[in-house]
Specification:
InterPro entries: RemA-like. With 82 residues, the chain is an alpha+beta fold. It has two helices and six strands; from the N terminus they run βββαβββα. The strands form two sheets. Strands 3-5-6-4 form a four-stranded mixed beta sheet. Strands 1-2 form a two-stranded antiparallel sheet. It is globular, with a radius of gyration of 12 Å.
């Protein structure tokens, strides 16, 4: 199954490692991780930075999503019922 992250971006649920709230970037270790990932080209912005609510770490990239991590979690779980 796939998960819609916003805009025209969908990823395979099998590739998702973590879905985190954007506020976790305030922690020094997370901030450093994001900076390194950005420098190495792994960060994919779906919308502008002001609309970021979560970031989704996948096996290939990190997506900055305008959709909250709670909503993304609900979307991911809703497909488990079928």
């Amino acid at each position: 199954m796939f998960l819609h992250l916003g805009g025209d971006v969908v990823v395979s649920k099998e590739d998702i490692i973590a879905i985190l709230d954007v506020r976790t970037r305030q922690a020094p270790i997370t901030r450093e991780f994001i900076e390194i990932a950005r420098d190495e080209g792994f960060i994919k912005n779906i919308y502008d930075q002001e609309k970021e609510k979560s970031f989704v770490i996948t096996t290939r990239d990190i997506y900055m999503s305008p959709i909250s991590c709670v909503t993304l979690k609900k979307r991911a779980e809703s497909f488990l019922d079928y």
